[in-house]
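## tool: complex_structure
## caller: assistant
## args:
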Amino acid sequence: MIHPTQNNRPLSPRRQREREQRRGEILQAAEAVFAARGFHEASIESIAEAAGFGTGTIYLYFQDKEALYAAAFAAKITQMVAEIETRTQQAGDPIAALEGAIRAQLEFHEKHRAFFEIFAHHRPAGPGPGSEEWTTVRECLTRHTALLCSVIEAGQKRKLLRKCDSGRLAVSLLGMLLHITRDAMERRMPEPLSEQAAFVTDIFLHGAAARKAA
Amino acid sequence: MIHPTQNNRPLSPRRQREREQRRGEILQAAEAVFAARGFHEASIESIAEAAGFGTGTIYLYFQDKEALYAAAFAAKITQMVAEIETRTQQAGDPIAALEGAIRAQLEFHEKHRAFFEIFAHHRPAGPGPGSEEWTTVRECLTRHTALLCSVIEAGQKRKLLRKCDSGRLAVSLLGMLLHITRDAMERRMPEPLSEQAAFVTDIFLHGAAARKAA
Amino acid sequence: MIHPTQNNRPLSPRRQREREQRRGEILQAAEAVFAARGFHEASIESIAEAAGFGTGTIYLYFQDKEALYAAAFAAKITQMVAEIETRTQQAGDPIAALEGAIRAQLEFHEKHRAFFEIFAHHRPAGPGPGSEEWTTVRECLTRHTALLCSVIEAGQKRKLLRKCDSGRLAVSLLGMLLHITRDAMERRMPEPLSEQAAFVTDIFLHGAAARKAA
Amino acid sequence: MIHPTQNNRPLSPRRQREREQRRGEILQAAEAVFAARGFHEASIESIAEAAGFGTGTIYLYFQDKEALYAAAFAAKITQMVAEIETRTQQAGDPIAALEGAIRAQLEFHEKHRAFFEIFAHHRPAGPGPGSEEWTTVRECLTRHTALLCSVIEAGQKRKLLRKCDSGRLAVSLLGMLLHITRDAMERRMPEPLSEQAAFVTDIFLHGAAARKAA
DNA sequence: TATGAATGAGAGTTCATTCAT
DNA sequence: CATGAATGAACTCTCATTCAT
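## result:
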């Protein structure tokens, strides 16, 4: 995953650690700049400066701009997935886990608005031949969906959720979350996104149809 | 809406028609190229070539690249909204209208895969001060959401749908549709998207929760 | 001088006159636009519009933009030379003629400020191989200098002016006039240029040195 | 005055010197190309090539084409003013200083014919709001006139020159010098310009009028 | 290893000029 | 003759990437 140095002999653990350290700093700067300006508007130079390195240095750690972007992207998603996972594990039952996941994701979107803008707008270009840099990203996204899937499947096992393709359910739920966030941002809505967690959970579980009189 | 030629006196109907014709050709080419490559990667030259015109010609019809993009975008969305609207009007009751809208949109996504890529990915950057070219686009998107809203509200009036913020419902539904499409495309799923219409309708109406024994 | 039509057979006097008429209109528009915007900033289209013709029409009367510029330039200079000449002929003696010429030129500069800006700034590029369009212009400028020369020579014949190279004197005088105008314009001096006529005449005739006590 | 690199921390003296060096090379190339072709006809690419750099490099040293032009212009004028000043300081009395200034300027025109073309032709467009790049240029030109003024005023103090607006006198003299040069160049006169120094001095001091019998 | 000056391909855009109508 | 839509070469300027130090 790490951009290979010219020289292939193994780095000392010390070197290795330092390298990871620097890579991390760059990633963090990259995330901030990409989030603030978007992919095309963010220049390598500005990222380097933000990270406190020279321009050329970036290329010692990342193949090119796309790879850096993909790496930053992946790192962020990974972090989000982790946060969501933590929350689901704290829940007592599958329904609570689901609501936890929903809430966690909305909170994450909220805490990382700028990133979300990019996340929502500049994604890997189609399935295409796929520039291999995106592979990692796609894997992260897959893990994200998979996480929701497993929560849903847990609910299905306990007969709390309908028996139907959990993948489709996960994708649908995710779509709701993403678009609700996008909408809130486009309309600059002031109230916290997480306030919509209950609504989303409710709709996802019980639907929009009026309940028949019992 | 049409980029004015320097000269403001009215064109002969003949000229007028030809102008619209050419404008349309350019828009079509632009849509294809933008969809295939994305905004930044699409060059004006490639669009001009695709349209069978010289580079400079584009600028006789559109202020600049952004305006062209916005126009292509808006044209497409307008078309989609129209198709959905038609379908909802053919339906007998609000629930059928809802399913019609869902199906129509998925079919549209399917028929215009390439466009969808940008539709989903390169949207106006934030609500911001907005580079006025986007105003049209935003209006179209708003009309799209509004259309879904009105269908939902019709259902609410007939007590077929729950009484809750129709906007939120519309946004949620839209999110499901968008993300399901995205997912299908990213995974190059072969079966037609419209096959998922029933599923989406069902989930949207009745939710994912297991139904209590009646 | 007139840009040849495809067809070389002589035009009817009627046609001929109309042609000259149109050419004149274009020249006038060109002068105005060039003066207002400068050579490079003035577009053929704007000139055509100002003249009330189509863009292409310009090319029926002038080879290209440079030729048009040169023609407009020459026309203006010709006009200026004519005005100066008239004034010198009204004068009783060579000294008065000289002052008349000076005053006439300053007045012309003043009345045609915008033109002067261009006149002073965008002149034929060097002596170079000389793009033949400029020949006319150079001839006009030569006639201008020659006019001053003849006035000076008249003064010399009457022993009112020193016997020395009249050409050099003329060029020096012209330089004073041009630069005084330029200076006044650059400093946006409000008082009329022609007020400097007496000063220039005095300096040109008697020099800047203090006069010895007689 | 030097176009700042993004990074504002001070460069090492070494770097600093090299930077100045390169900047100088570019300026020199720019001067040559601008002089040969004029502002609009000179392309950045041609200047870069003449300087032996890549196109982009120019922009590391100058904001844009205008700034480069202004810088080249200003550098040259500064040099001219310096040469003239030196010469005036070597002179024993104001009259000799005046003649020195005249001779020095003519010599400079001669040595830098190509530059003179633009000096004389492409000056800042009007005083206008002024595209701030020109400020430097205007200051230089002002210093030039001021230098002549001070020489003239010295002469006036010693009663060697008439008591009259020194500014007007300076402008007049400058006009003579500029136009004499222009005329010589347009007519490709072979003899050195500096040969006209005595003539100009004489005319400027004593005028063109025939001297009354003493 | 880190740097950042240099690069140059490539972008969007303009406009003098042409030519089918 | 007159037109003005179409053209495309040419422009300025940017920025990802390289490489000598």
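## assistant note: Residues 5, 45, 48, 53-57, 60 of chain C lie near DNA strand F (CB under 10 Å from a C1'). Chain C touches chain D through 52 residues (CB under 8 Å). Handing back to user.
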